[in-house]
């Protein structure tokens, strides 16, 4: 009888230990699930906040005309032009091209559907989604004006003004051939930086210069700015519209 009693005691002890282990496992599982839920909720919360914040910033400029966004046009320097190298070459998209100006306004570039030129519908890029320079130069050939902004703008509240400017060019009108894109640290290391005190640049590929041939008339057009200025963009694009380009009727 004593052996039977001891055996029953051991079984009872083992069962108690199993119950405690199951209870511990359940608590651990609930804790893990709870922590995971908090992390997931936090991630979703940040994502939702980011979207709502971006939309709120866009709406802040909805009722403003283009030339009221950002600083006055006087924040920008004089418009300058440079004769192009006459190249409209389309090398393979595997070919990396180094441009001699910061930013580029003309030159050889990639040509591939859905890659180069970048799509008409996208007006604003960040460093995460910006097409390669070789693609954007093809946009310039088609009459686009590009507003380039450096890292100091990308890391400041001025980026909202750049986005607000870009949003003014939504729509199917060919006059809205505009892109805002970052000029990154990698671009600076290859092609140079903007002049001192200037953190944005406008560039355009024009054909309205003087010369004996069409190629001689082509000009890269540049204007550098200290701050985002919708007024400067408006003036620049009025002087150098999409129609003043090598291939204005291309998409």
The succession of helices and strands, N to C, reads HEHEHHEHEHEH
Helicity, as a percent range:
40-55%
Outline the biggest β-sheet: 5 strands, mixed
The number of domains: 2
Care to count the β-strands? 5
Helix-and-strand structural type: alpha+beta
Walk across the major sheet and give the strand order: 1-5-4-2-3
Radius of gyration: 29 Å
Q: If you average the pLDDT, what whole number results?
A: 88
Strand content is 5-15%
How far the N terminus sits from the C terminus, by CA atoms, comes to: 96 Å
Poorly predicted runs of 5 or more residues: none
- What shape does the CA trace take? elongated
Overview of this structure, please?
By secondary structure, the chain is of the alpha+beta class. The protein has two domains: 1-60; 68-239, no CATH class. Helices cover 41% and strands 11% of the residues. The chain has seven helices and five strands; from the N terminus they run H-E-H-E-H-H-E-H-E-H-E-H. The protein has helices spanning 2-60, 133-141, 151-154, 158-167, 185-191, 214-217, 230-239; strands at residues 80-83, 145-149, 178-182, 200-206, 219-225. It has a five-stranded mixed β-sheet. Helix 1 (2-60) crosses helix 4. The longest helix is centred in the N-terminal third of the chain and has 59 residues, at 2-60. The chain is elongated and about 115 Å long.
């Amino acid at each position: 009888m004593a052996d039977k009693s001891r055996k029953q005691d051991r079984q009872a002890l083992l069962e108690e230990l199993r119950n405690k282990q199951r209870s511990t496992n359940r608590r651990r599982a609930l804790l893990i699930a709870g922590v995971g839920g908090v992390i997931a909720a936090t991630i979703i919360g940040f994502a939702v906040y980011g979207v709502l914040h971006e939309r709120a910033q866009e709406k802040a400029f909805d009722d403003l005309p283009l030339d009221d966004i950002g600083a006055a046009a006087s924040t920008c320097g004089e418009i300058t032009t440079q004769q192009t190298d006459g190249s409209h070459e389309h090398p393979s998209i595997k070919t990396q091209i180094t441009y001699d100006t910061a930013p580029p306004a003309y030159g050889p570039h990639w040509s591939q559907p859905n890659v180069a030129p970048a799509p008409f519908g996208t007006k604003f890029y960040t460093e995460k989604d910006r097409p390669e320079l070789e693609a954007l130069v093809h946009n310039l050939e088609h009459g686009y004006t590009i507003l380039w902004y450096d890292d100091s703008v990308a890391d400041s509240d001025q980026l909202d003004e750049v986005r607000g400017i870009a949003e003014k060019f939504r729509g199917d009108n060919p006059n809205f051939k505009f892109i805002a894109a970052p000029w990154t640290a990698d671009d600076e290391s290859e092609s140079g930086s903007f002049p001192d005190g200037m953190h944005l640049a406008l560039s355009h590929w024009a054909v309205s210069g003087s010369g004996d041939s069409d190629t001689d008339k082509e000009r890269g057009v540049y204007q550098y700015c200290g701050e985002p200025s919708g007024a400067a963009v408006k003036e620049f694009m009025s002087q150098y519209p999409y129609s003043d380009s090598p291939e204005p009727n291309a998409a």
